[in-house]
């Protein structure tokens, strides 16, 4: 069953169309991530779901209840939706405990116990209860904001770039903690971010947003492997894109013959491979072996566990121009040095992109 349904939501500010005909179904219990560059309309969309903005046209339902349509609007405080805004927005003049307990109806002992339980669920030490927001790290502030939203027992949780203020190591740890916490609580979640690796890792449903429009949605692995167009391909990660002639399930291109995942015939198209689908084998220059595609390593970007290489395909005849440059992802430990000649082979299928 779908918890939230967005039907053709549009919103303009003056002549600027911030949301353009957005439709999306969010399954109950899912973690849906909306990913898009800054300014693509992500915050506007979340604020609309929360009830702080209203669409010009379109309809929004939650568990079958209409929240907004052309005739009526359910106000934010009646929606039972948890919203953690981009900056966390803790009340600066309230302690951690007071922030978390802000919307709790209970009093006295019961209230104290509920606050302690919520702090425990977001892995905050009980001794932090009397601290002030400015005495907390970014990660701790985010967890207080999350606990405050969870205190309302929301039907839906909205998280706006919740990890963007944290440094890399902490970000991955927080992401896992929050994912597990929300799964345990069984809360349907929508998270928005501009960070593609965060999106791919957190989502079980991913939707890509661009210029106020949802351009593609689905399982993260499918979007990564089968992006609709080149722009989406490059937004979700590095990609090798090149022209090819498609014939009987094969792409004929500068890398030779590669199987493709769709069977248009005798047409020319752009194909895409992820850099980790290219494999390099070292060869001795000018030797007879290695009849396939040869390339020279022109750049090497070492980042520990992986290494991103740029290789330049070598022409078959020495009087031709040097060939296309390609990105290759290799293990950091066994990456060939710049200047070395390598053989390039591919793994798996190439994906045929749609025309822009
Ligand atoms: P994102 O969260 O993806 O960075 P936003 O939803 O904040 O994007 O903004 C989308 C676009 O709408 C931006 O161009 C922004 O300037 C514009 N916008 C957002 N809110 C308002 C507003 N209240 N008034 C005018 N323009 C706005
Ligand atoms: Mg935003």
From TrEMBL:
Keyword Ion transport attributed: yes
Pfam families: ABC_tran
UniProt keyword annotations, A-Z: ATP-binding, Cell membrane, Ion transport, Iron, Iron transport, Membrane, Nucleotide-binding, Transport
Species in which this protein is naturally found: Pseudomonas moorei
Keyword Thylakoid in record: no
UniProt GO BP: quaternary ammonium group transport
Entry GO MF terms: ABC-type ferric iron transporter activity; ATP binding; ATP hydrolysis activity
Protein name: Iron(III) transport system ATP-binding protein
InterPro entries reported in the protein's UniProt record: AAA+_ATPase (IPR003593), ABC_SmlMolc_Importer (IPR050093), ABC_transporter-like_ATP-bd (IPR003439), ABC_transporter-like_CS (IPR017871), ABC_transpr_FbpC (IPR015853), Mo/tungstate-bd_C_term_dom (IPR008995), P-loop_NTPase (IPR027417)
Domain ABC transporter: 4-236
A GO CC term attached to the entry: membrane
UniProt superkingdom: Bacteria
């Amino acid at each position: 069953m779908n918890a939230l349904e967005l039907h053709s939501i549009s919103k303009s500010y003056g002549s600027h169309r911030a949301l353009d005909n957005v439709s999306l179904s969010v399954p109950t219990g899912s973690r849906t991530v909306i990913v898009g560059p800054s300014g693509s309309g992500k915050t506007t969309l979340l604020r609309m779901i929360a009830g702080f903005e209203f669409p010009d046209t379109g309809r929004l339902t939650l568990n079958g209840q209409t929240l907004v349509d052309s005739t009526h609007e359910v106000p934010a405080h009646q929606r039972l939706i948890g919203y953690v805004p981009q900056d966390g927005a803790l009340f600066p003049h309230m302690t951690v405990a007071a922030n978390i307990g802000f919307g709790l109806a209970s009093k006295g002992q019961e209230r104290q116990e509920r606050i302690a339980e919520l702090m425990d669920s977001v892995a905050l030490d009980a001794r932090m209860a009397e601290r002030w927001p400015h005495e907390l790290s970014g990660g701790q502030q985010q967890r207080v904001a999350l606990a405050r939203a969870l205190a309302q027992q929301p039907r839906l949780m909205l998280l706006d770039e919740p990890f963007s203020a944290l440094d890399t190591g902490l970000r991955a740890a927080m992401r896992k903690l929050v994912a597990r916490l929300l799964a345990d609580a069984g809360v349907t979640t929508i998270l928005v971010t501009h960070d593609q690796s965060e999106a791919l890792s957190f989502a079980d449903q991913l939707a890509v947003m661009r210029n106020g429009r949802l351009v593609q949605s689905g399982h993260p692995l499918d979007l990564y492997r089968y992006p609709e167009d080149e722009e989406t391909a490059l937004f979700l990660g590095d990609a090798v894109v090149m022209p090819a002639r498609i014939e009987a399930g094969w792409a004929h291109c500068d890398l030779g013959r590669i199987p493709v995942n769709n069977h248009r015939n005798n047409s020319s198209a752009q194909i895409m491979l992820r850099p980790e689908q290219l494999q390099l084998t070292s060869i001795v220059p000018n030797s007879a072996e290695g009849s396939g595609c040869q390339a020279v390593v022109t750049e090497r970007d070492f980042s520990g566990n992986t290494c991103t290489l740029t290789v330049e395909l070598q022409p078959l005849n020495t009087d031709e121009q040097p060939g296309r440059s390609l990105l290759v992802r290799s293990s950091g430990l066994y990456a060939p040095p710049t200047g070395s000649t390598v053989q390039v082979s591919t793994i798996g299928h190439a994906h045929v992109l749609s025309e822009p």
